[in-house]
Amino acid sequence: MSSNLDDFLSDVEWKKVKKTKNLLLILRDAYTCGVPAMIAKSLTDRLKEAGNYEFYLGTPPKELRLIASFLLTEFNTNPSIIVNLLPALWKRHGREDAVLYGIILANINPDLLTENIWVFFSNSLRKQEPADDVLSVCEELIRAKRPFPSIEILNLLCAKGIIFHQLVLFILFQKFKNNQHLTHDEMKMISSCPGSSDLIIRIKNRVINN
Question: Which of 38, 138, 141, 157 could staple 170 via S-S, CB 3.0–4.6 A?
Answer without folding.
Answer: 138
